[in-house]
Amino acid sequence: MTARQRPRRKRIHLAAQVPGVDNTSRPWIEFASFEHLARTAERGLFDFLLLADGLRPREHEGRIDGVDVVGRPEPLTVLGALAAVTDRLGLAATVDATFNEPYELARRLATLDHLSGGRAGWNVVTSSDAFTGENFRRGGHPDRSERFSRAAEFVAVARELWDSWTPDGVSRPFAHRGRHFDIAGEFTVPRPPQGHPVVLQAGDSEEGRESAAATADVMFTRHGTLEDGRAFYADVKKRLEKYGRTPDDLRIMPAVTVVLGATVAEARERAAGIRRQQISPQQALRTLERIWGVDLSSYDPDGPLPEIDPVPEPAIAQGRPRHGDSVAVAEKWRALSKEKGLSIRQTVIEAGCGRPSFIGTPEAVAAELDACVRRDAADGFVLVPHLTPGGLDEFVDRVVPLLQERGAFRTEYEGATLRSHLGLSGPAGKG
């Protein structure tokens, strides 16, 4: 095979997420913290920085969860400020499609895309729990299918609004009449520099996979291991064809954590220490309650797991997502607890409920990340630092140079827009 015939090496896409809820984070209201993370991500040549969000503090049995982050500012406002202190880094906001309206949000996203020179992204989410609706006149908590249906139409309407201006600056009236929205008028903001801001979406469910294949530019997932990742990657990518899209039209990027050490043993010890800090006795019980679906406050976190089975329709959850098949998870955790003689807290620490982790030396982590992308388990990764705002620095300083040496990551930005960083030719469905 000649050099001209040899396929181009698949490169890694990297992004960073600012946690919206994280018991190791300090109050999220100081701009200096956001600026530090953004500058570090841009120094590391990341595709984008994602701000997570929630429209109400997490609650548990009618009380605000004591481990929830305090002070959660509106993300698009923060990204507007970050646009002024960064030059190339993509700026993505998590914005709820259940309790917002298309015209208002499309206008704000188009404005950010103009102010940043084409670097805006929108992580589309639906309300995750019944508590949130109480903050809004609409109230209540639509069922899952209704939330997905509204979100899909919401994205479609936003794209109609962005397309209502021609590329050469001519405004045209718009009109949309659908199940959830009935609006008509004229959009106030010219067509965004990217055509459409990049649309991001998370979800491992059947509905989430299908929705991402139809409408998303970037998809988040929890599948970070090689074999699980390859199966998920292949499944989602093959769904694109039915929507007239190619595998290169969607980037799949698992959210992961990274813990480094001079040796593997040191990295593992650091990771264990981080988990111990993150999972307090109180947090361990609440994690278990989200699986079992009942009040477990009378249980000793240093004692054994409950012998009772999880309930199928827990009132305690009020719409909050559970950790997959609760019965299967409970059985798995009981087996782990019995095998290693672990208490409730030790089991939660050992098993975890969060995102995949890459733990090891910088060289080992760089090799593992590269292997996952080269073997089609992912197109890249969204790093979620366990400490803020300095939790990204070590990865940028110690792992990024190794990825560059391997030819697995860019050595400079090759474009100015988020869409160009991701290697996307146009908005989803536009080619």
Automatic annotation (TrEMBL):
Superkingdom of this protein's organism: Bacteria
GO molecular function: monooxygenase activity
Key word Flavoprotein present: yes
Residue span(s) of domain Luciferase-like: 26-373
Pfam families documented for this protein: Bac_luciferase
Keywords: Flavoprotein, FMN, Monooxygenase, Oxidoreductase
Oxidoreductase found in the keyword field: yes
InterPro entries named in the record: Diverse_substr_monoxygenases (IPR051260), Luciferase-like_dom (IPR011251), Luciferase-like_sf (IPR036661), NTA_MOA (IPR016215)
NCBIfam families: FMN_nitrolo (TIGR03860)
Family according to the record: Belongs to the NtaA/SnaA/DszA monooxygenase family.
Protein name per the record: NtaA/DmoA family FMN-dependent monooxygenase
Taxonomic source organism: Streptomyces plumbiresistens
